[in-house]
TrEMBL record:
Highest rank taxon of the organism: Bacteria
InterPro entries: JetD_C (IPR024534), Spo11/TopoVI_A_sf (IPR036078)
An annotated GO cellular component: chromosome
Official protein name in the record: DUF2399 domain-containing protein
SUPFAM superfamilies membership: DNA topoisomerase IV, alpha subunit (SSF56726)
Length: 329
């Protein structure tokens, strides 16, 4: 055994413990990362490597983990508007597609393990840490006024909806809203359906596009602060799919922005009315429903979740074609 190192050398093979030492050195910069979940992953991984356990790492892909460290180290410096995936890749690797080809899969695996929120898509996971395909707009319908670089800007008179860019949202300060209620809507078709059929109802309607992306979250935070100071009793409603994702999105908006949010067309009676238009769900999906049923966080949704489990169906917003014309909150 004393000659083992010499055997490895003669055979041109790097000993496993040497690979582990090199991996520990590669990941070392993450020890003092500003984000807790990154430090947690480093600590768990470093401990396993110190005990001569690979911890699921590919010890032969040291360069791949060097790339991962580069990306993780860059995240705290991304501003509120997000960083284009291709621009990030060019900046770090001098190749606009290197991140997507060589880093994204491993990076997403890490995000999905440590994210406090279970998102529906890879794009939403990336957006949650500031990596975007391109900065997204916020689509709103209704009348509001804001201060933007010293000028008062109003959406009054715009028909349908308008899009606010990430840079506009970052710079704007909401100073007035003229509406009787605020409504957030998950899907684009339903958003257009609502705004067209309820034009003139004095509502501020906001399209969420699934889980609110980072630009929309910035807008919702500013809107929430305005409401808190100026009209704390403003009714806020959300309309989304009657499924796992729809419930999670509702709870995300309620928890993070508007604590008094109420659901629209997401109840048991709506499910029963439209179940003939519903989509089937598989065993894996049913398992997600059961996990939510066991969570106190979703206790107000138990009746709806039990219907999802019982009928093994979920209902998309687009299946609901009767918008309440007399809805007044």
């Amino acid at each position: 055994m004393d000659a083992l190192e010499k055997v490895y050398l003669l055979a041109g093979i790097e000993p496993k413990h040497k690979k582990m030492e090199r991996m520990r050195e590669t990941l070392q910069p993450l020890e003092f990362h500003p984000w807790e979940w990154v430090r947690q992953w480093w600590q768990e991984t470093d401990l396993k490597l110190a005990k001569r356990k690979s911890g699921g790492l590919d010890l032969d892909d040291l360069s791949g983990y060097k790339d991962l460290v580069k990306v993780l180290s860059k995240l705290p410096n991304i501003d509120d508007t997000g960083k284009s995936k291709r621009l990030l890749s060019q900046e770090l690797f001098r190749d606009t597609k290197h991140f997507e080809r060589n880093v994204q899969k491993r990076f997403l695996s890490l995000l999905k393990k440590y994210s406090p929120i279970e998102f529906e898509t890879d794009e939403e996971y990336l957006d949650s840490v500031g990596i975007v395909e391109n900065p997204k707009n916020v689509y709103v319908s209704g009348w509001l006024e804001c201060q933007l670089r010293g000028e008062t800007v109003s959406t009054k008179g715009f028909l349908g909806n308008i899009g606010l860019s990430a840079w506009t949202v970052k710079e704007m300060e909401i100073c007035s809203i003229y509406c009787k209620r605020i409504i957030t809507i998950e899907n684009l078709t339903s958003y257009h359906q609502w705004t067209q059929q309820r034009a003139g109802k004095q509502e501020l309607v906001i399209y969420t596009g699934g889980f609110p992306h980072r630009t929309l979250q910035m807008f919702l935070a500013k809107l929430a602060n305005y409401l808190k100071s100026n009209c704390p009793n403003m009714p806020v409603y959300h309309w989304g799919d009657i499924d796992v994702g729809g419930v999670r999105i509702f709870e995300f908006i309620k928890t993070n922005f508007f604590q008094k949010t109420e659901p629209i067309l997401m109840d048991a009676s709506t499910f029963m009315k439209y179940k003939d238009k519903a989509l089937p769900i598989d065993d894996g999906y049913v398992l997600k429903v059961r996990v939510m049923l066991e969570s106190q966080r979703f206790s107000s949704w138990h009746e709806v979740l039990q219907l999802l489990e019982q009928y093994r169906l979920r209902i998309e917003q687009e299946s609901i074609d009767e918008i309440p014309s007399n809805f007044s909150g």
